[in-house]
Amino acid sequence: MTTAMLEVTDMHAAYGAIEVLRGVSLRVERGEIVALIGSNGAGKSTSLLSISQIITPRSGDVRFLGESLIGLRGDEVIARGLVQVPEGRRVFSRMSIDENLQLGAYLRKDISGIASDLRHVHELFPVLKERGGQLAGTLSGGEQQMLAIGRALMSRPTLLMMDEPSMGIAPLLVTRIFSAIRELNRGGLTVLLVEQNARGALGLSSRGYVLETGKVTIGGDAQDLLKDDRIRSAYLGE
């Protein structure tokens, strides 16, 4: 088997005495969109935080491009090309759109590359160009999500991890954001997508995993998962 872009093996993580992840294993191949679905409290966000090394796993391994990330600082993980769009967007509300986007490139020194990526973000989300001087905190939830994605893209990721990009957003903007994810993937970006919107996430993805009480219980082709009676009953309301 060829080396995956991202390979998580038997990852355990906890908050104090409370164990949240109990042996998570998953793979993301170059060029894929992979969905990680599950109910509230299943450990989806903790999985991404542990992969990013924002939370230090208690055991297990996280390998990106063949090298372990365990023990690295967050900025070192980003510098290697693994970037996360956090749950709840977490834009800098008292800073402008332009300033938020500039912060996404804070580890970079390639001026022409930064300018090129900024043009790409503006093409992807024109509202960010139109309102560049506006405070981020005055944007709608959907617009803030676009800004959070744009900020992450300014880091020039190789693999983008997204945590609940549709949460609290109007359906029309959810469609726009999912279309942007598909467009980014067609441009070569690999994506690990955490979503409670199981139908939308699996419809967008090539493969998927189901996380239940801190463990991956089902994994496979996304279209097969959409037809799985267990998934249809638990997550698709059928």
Unreliable runs = none
Strand order of the largest sheet: 6-7-8-3-9-10
Question: For the residues shown, what is the average pLDDT?
Answer: 92
Radius of gyration: 17 Å
Helix and strand element order: EEEHEEHEHHHHEHEHEEHH
CATH homologous superfamily caption of the domain at 6-89 and 157-235: P-loop containing nucleotide triphosphate hydrolases
Ends apart, CA distance between termini:
36 Å
Strand content: 25-35%
The appropriate CATH architecture of the domain at 6-89 and 157-235 is 3-Layer(aba) Sandwich
Helical proportion, percent range = 25-40%
| CATH topology-level fold name of the domain at 6-89 and 157-235 | Rossmann fold
- What class do helices, strands and sheet pairing give? alpha/beta
Q: Helix segment count?
A: 10
Describe the structure.
- With 238 residues, the chain is an alpha/beta fold.
- The chain has a domain at 6-89 and 157-235: P-loop containing nucleotide triphosphate hydrolases (Rossmann fold).
- The protein is 38% helix and 26% strand.
- It has a 6-stranded mixed β-sheet with strand order 6-7-8-3-9-10, sandwiched between helices. It has a 4-stranded antiparallel β-sheet with strand order 2-1-4-5, covered by helices on one side.
- Helix 3 packs parallel to helix 6.
- The longest helix has 16 residues, at 171-186.
- The chain is globular.
